[in-house]
Amino acid sequence: MTRQLAGWLLEQLRTLTRKAGLADEAVLRIADKMPDNYSQLGWIITAFPNVRIIHCRRDVRDVAVSCWMTQFAQIRWAFDREHLAEPIIQYRRIMDHWRAVLPVPMLEIDFEETVADQAGQTRRLLEFIGVDWDDACLRFQETERLVRTASVTQVRQPVYTRSGGTLAALRGHASAVAGAHRLIGLVSLRLTAAMAPGRGPVGPPRRAGPRVPSGLGEGCISKFSRFSRVASFKQGVPLGTRLPPCVTMAARFRLRSIDMMPTAHYQAVADGVYCIETGLYRDGLAACYLLRSGDRLAFVDTGTTNSVPGLLGVVADLGLTPAQVDYVIPTHVHLDHAGGAGALMAACPGAQLIAHSKAAPHLIDPAKLTAGATAVYGEEAFARDFGAMTPIPEARVTAANDGQSFDLAGRTLTFIDTPGHANHHGCLFDAGSGGMFTGDTFGISYREFDTGQGPWLFAPTTPVAFDPDAWQRSLDRMMAFEPVAMFLTHYCRIDAPEALVQGLRQSIRDLAEIALAEEAATDAGRQQRIKDAITVHLIDDVRRHGCALSDGEITNLLAVDLELNAQGLEVWLRRRARRGG
């Protein structure tokens, strides 16, 4: 049975190597760094008796906060401070067991020691697996291999010390620091209670050798930890064989799954156009698009930094690589559209970022954008839902002119300046499909509200640059292209835009009138009254459209938009007051 399972796994790995364009004989070793390997070591060494186990460890408090601050859609316990402690406890218990019974060597390497002495720890690792030294090992950030995890931006940088000590990294974010303090206290308390007398609160049994600061523990439990556990398989490869550059392949090692790293849900919506779910808040709320022309690619909008691993998964699923991405084109710099632009650019070495001239500076230096978004969403929500933005080198950014065309392997994309929702907004007309990528300028249309009357649209008046008159003019310009379809970020493709545009124009007028009805009031309750009026208006409007959902279901689906629309209209009224109406 074990021999059959091992043979099955090797065949799956051969399939993956061929899919990656590698000949079987070129792959001398497979490095499997799946986080749950620690629970399967018994099976692994039975199936592969020549395996070398490398156990990477990190201060469990840093790991816990890292998990808590990162949006892992498939790891539900990572969102709960109580639940976070339990996997750490069980992980430590299981590793104590393997240390006592494993019949094969196991090398244990600490994150903190690796950061302090990268060369020394790298030599130690290579000696353990029988691979000769190569100076390129210290320049791992220069590799062009595909990376599709949440650490995509970190692995494109040299080793740095910023990740040690979570509280220092969060300085300036008061709510995040408070939450991290609570989490660290809870994890330390739970670990102390679960461990035998005589051990420190988080310190594990250490290997023989120099002591390191107390409080450093095992704990790379995060699926996307920078230093994940690795099992190096050496079936039939003599120790000391030199590993040729760029032939290793990280592969998932699970009995139930041999697929590669996360791939976002996506669907073809036109010839060479794919709509990709970005996973913000709920499925069906936010998307981005991948265009394909031959073997060349372009992204329109990016989702958040947390979305990027799934986007790269789609590229791989299409049999392509990030090196084939020519353009990354955010329609504007709101974070659900452009938050992941820097991370995606870091992963796509040949891509050029195309952005509105007013948006480009904020993507080159996202400090002001981050501060503004934090003010809108709050520090904790910003960190949880969007993730840190990565600056983009100025040389890789093109500020698009109105009407400027870009060539994607023979497919013409035309940029159009479309203010109204935001003054840094641009749309993109795709001559290949006859469709237009609209960001937010053609409104929001969630598929849950589709009826026999077709899609239902409303205008998003998100802070901070709502301009109803400019928006109406932008719609005139868009419709002049006679698009056959609109590709909405919120959400997916809608057809026959000429039949829908008047409803969107009315929504812009209606929402402006709701705000103007409150213009004379300046009390603190104005924004809430605007939100209440928007809620009533949108429920009534979608009812007229034939929607049979309950009021509660409608409100839940629109919860984010109701809040942001109210904030945006309040900002608009304040701007009108400063300008004298």
Task: Explain the overall architecture.
With 581 residues, the protein is α/β, with parallel strands linked by helices. It has two domains: 2-233, Rossmann fold (3-Layer(aba) Sandwich); 266-502, Metallo-beta-lactamase, Chain A (4-Layer Sandwich). It has 19 helices and 17 strands. A hairpin with an 8-residue loop joins strand 13 (411-417) and strand 14 (426-430). The chain is elongated, with a radius of gyration of 26 Å. The N and C termini lie far apart (79 Å). Residues 166-178 and 195-261 have low confidence and may be disordered.
Quick synopsis:
With 581 residues, the chain is an alpha/beta fold. It is built from 19 helices and 17 strands.
Primary descriptors:
alpha/beta; about 575 residues; 19 helices; 2 domains; single chain
Strand content: 5-15%
Oligomer: single chain
Helical amount among residues, as a percent range? 25-40%
Mean pLDDT across all residues, rounded? Answer: 79
Would you count the extended β strands for me? 17
- Per CATH, which architecture of the largest domain? 4-Layer Sandwich
State Rg.
Answer: 26 Å
Low-pLDDT regions: 166-178, 195-261
Strand order of the largest sheet: 5-6-7-8-9-10-11
What fold name stands as the CATH topology of the largest domain? Metallo-beta-lactamase, Chain A
Profile the largest sheet. Answer: 7 strands, mixed
Total DSSP helices: 19
Q: What is the CATH H-level superfamily of the largest domain? A: Ribonuclease Z/Hydroxyacylglutathione hydrolase-like
What separation lies between the terminal Cα atoms? 79 Å
Overall tally of structural domains: 2
Find the structural class using helix and strand composition: alpha/beta
General form: elongated
